[in-house]
Amino acid sequence: MIKIKIDGKALEVKPKTSIIEVADKVGIDIPRFCYHKKLSVAANCRMCLVEVKNFAKPLPACATQVMEGMEISTKSKFTKDTQKSVMEFLLINHPLDCPICDQGGECDLQDTAVAYGASKTRYTEEKRVVFDKNIGPLISTDLTRCIQCTRCVRFLKEVGGMAELGLIGRGEHAEISAYVDKSVESELSGNIIDLCPVGALTSKPFRYSARSWELSRRSTIACHDSLGSNIEAHVKDNIVKRVIPKENESINECWISDRDRFSYEGLNHKDRINLPLKREKNQWKEIDWEEAYELIEKNITDIDIKKSNKIGIICSPQSTLEEGFLLKKIAKELNTSHIDYRLLEKSFSENNNWLGCKIDEIESHDAILVVGSNLKHDQPLLAHRFRRYANKRNNFSIITSYDDFYSTRCLEKVIVNPSAYINYLLMILKQVQLSTKYKINSEVIKNLLKAAKPSNEAKRIAKSLLSNKSKAIFLGHQILHLDDGDNIKLVAMHIAQAVGATFGLIPGYANSVGLNELNLNTDNISADKILSQSKEAYIMMNFDPLYDYHSPKKINSALKKAKFNLAISPYISDSFKEFDVVLPMTPFTETSGTFINMEKTIQSFSAVTPPVGQSRPGWKILRVLANFLQLEGFSYDSSEEVKTDAMIEMDKKNEFSLNDFKPSNIERGLEVLNVVRANDSDMIVRRATSLHQNKNKDQSCCLINPTTMLEEGLIEGQKIKISSSEAEILINVKADDNVCLNAVVIYGKQDETFILGMHNKVKIKKA
Ligand code: SF4
Ligand code: FES
Q: pLDDT by residue (tens digit) across 14-48?
């Protein structure tokens, strides 16, 4: 520790700390524009200049490290004069357009000018003008207001992972620019709106819809991926006008992904339903709640539930803990164990389906291996932690089939077919076994290991896992979408055990972990099995049966065969044709509930707006439904009461239990890789219009490796017919060498592709 004085206050601080960090810690305010605690230091705005004893010139507090005996004055006349001069200099070219600027009322420049600047300008020359650029549908630019702090540039390079903006020109002519004709496409791009200290970058969807002082700020939890980002919804007239991050260092730091930020646009989409709907002569008819419940009661009580499993219940992994608990309770009362939330899975082992460590512990490992994840789309914000780790430490390896981690420094990057994951892991396990003498009891694995011949990459990955002290192996949730996902998980767990690594799975959705912990599907019956055994009735909650379920054909034919189908959903669309009644539930912003995130942190939230129309929170719908069905034990008055009972029910899973390897018959041949883009993952985000305005041309194409294209006799731009066991589609081909060989990437859950189903073998033919 070293001794310094700041504004006369004696302090002992850690060496190598900057003056601004020390000041922030002790609550001394130093104005700043370019400095941000999460970005590299640029020291180009000079707003943080302070007087330091024995230095003739003022020093930038953000770029100056404390030294023994340093005496810093942040309030002296010298410092104040310096700050005033810098402020005057920064305002020379800044337009006086605060009344029409969207940043007004929450502008760092405005606040700092009032606190540190002069009250009058001495500048009478012409101000410079910079033409605005169109950088996409999410961010609006007014670049004349830019003060060239470069926070946006540094964020996109250091956090977004791609240098999409840059500073061109010098001095008076310096300006922020995107690459020619390019918009900003990072999944985290919206964070530059918060970072920009002036009104140069503002939110396009929010623009001019409210002033900051008209908004009430209400905290909630993002409902898309399993990170559980803390967010703040800004509400005016009971409508969510925008969403910004709420700082939580151990989960989302101070960032959020674009889907968490802009998905609020889907909340009031025209597909929202305000009243229960009943299907009559192939038309939807609005009915009141009483009539809807009576209709459901009549149809459900007609079913002879003495025979078990006459009713199938499927809900989304985004359902809250309270909704899941009530569904499970209803299922029990209706004598069915056919209840599930796993919409995309083909492998169903239930243990270790969480991260295995805390989110903020990820980067403390000395070596990391990730298998089978499109991190950028699956977990846009978590991907940043892996990227930061990889770029800092040369000990990050990834085995995947589509390389969306291109600008990241990896020790090994293995791009192979999903069907080859298992072989790769067996090679690593064999190499590990040679050094550790790790014992495996399974005869099947022993035989497979005999045949495995470790490649050089496998040897290097094994070496990095063996030679480092703390290591981790993470599987993407896509592993569970594969037929041999359980085997992959098992071998990865063996490697983890042999080398003493943390093992984790990165779950897909907001409450995948919560519903797993709740042991929703007590008998571990998969949704696929539920649909394949004929049912009298189905209850489906909070997902689009055709877009969100991996086999639209299977779900549709099961619904057709059932006598009565009930959907509980915020939206209506053609996907709900086979339902008899749809009850309007509220999305996450209009209900209270609980999500358990990937690291098992339990996060409860309250509604930020009242329900739209006569829609009701899911837990209330289920409670009243149970009352109408005269089921016992549903007299809850609040979601907290439901949560209390749910917490008692939480299953203590036997973690790290190694099941046996089940030989599976994996068909080789052209494999389809369904990449679900971050903005297509669920019903709300698919309806957020701005997120889809910039639909990249690639998204209406399928992507194939150029070598595979050559083998299949395909040329770029050609239309091909892709057929799966579900359907066939016509689609253009695009060459992409980020795709593994012998595979075709199709963006899943989109209008053009959903009918193919997900994760099926496909055949391609020239159209
Ligand atoms: S646009 Fe905003 S964040 Fe980017 S350099 Fe200019 S002032 Fe800074
Ligand atoms: S904040 Fe220190 S120079 Fe900009």
A: 999 999 999 999 999 999 999 999 999 999 999 99
> Does ligand 2 have an atom closer than 6 angstroms to the CB of 45?
yes
The proportion of the chain whose per-residue pLDDT surpasses 90, expressed as a percent, equals: 82
* Average pLDDT for 184-212: 96
Q: Is 35 in the pocket of ligand 2 (CB under 6 A)?
A: yes
Tell whether 363 and 499 lie within a shared domain.
yes
Which one of 38, 62, 91 terminates a domain?
91
Q: Per-residue b/e over 53-84, b at no fewer than 16 CB within 10 Å?
A: eeeeebbbbbbbebeeebebbbeeeebeebbe
**pLDDT tens-digit profile of 660-697?**
777 766 665 688 888 898 999 999 999 999 999 876 65
Nearest atom in ligand 2 to the alpha carbon of residue 43 is 3
* Residue 109 belongs to a domain: no
Ligand number nearest to the C-alpha of 149: 1
Domain count, the chain: 5
Ligand number, closest to the Cα atom of 176: 1
User: Is any ligand 1 atom within 6 A of the Cβ of residue 151?
Assistant: yes
Task: Give percent of the chain with pLDDT exceeding 70.
Answer: 97
Which structure tokens are listed for 248? Answer: 């939580």
Using CA atoms, how far apart are residues 260 and 188, in angstroms rounded to an integer? 10
- CB of 594 closer than 8 Å to CB of 568: no
> What is the spatial distance between Cα 511 and Cα 350, in angstroms, rounded to a whole number?
14
The residues facing 12 across adjacent strands are 3
Q: Is the pTM of this model over 0.85?
A: yes
Ligand 1 centroid–CA 147 distance in Å is 6
Quote the ligand 1 centre to 167 CA distance (angstroms). Answer: 10
149: Cβ below 6 Å to ligand 1? yes
pLDDT tens sequence across 201-250: 999 999 999 999 999 999 999 999 999 999 999 999 999 999 999 999 99
Domain residues for 501? 359-506
Residue count of the chain: 767
Q: What is the CATH number of the domain that holds 31?
A: 3.10.20.740
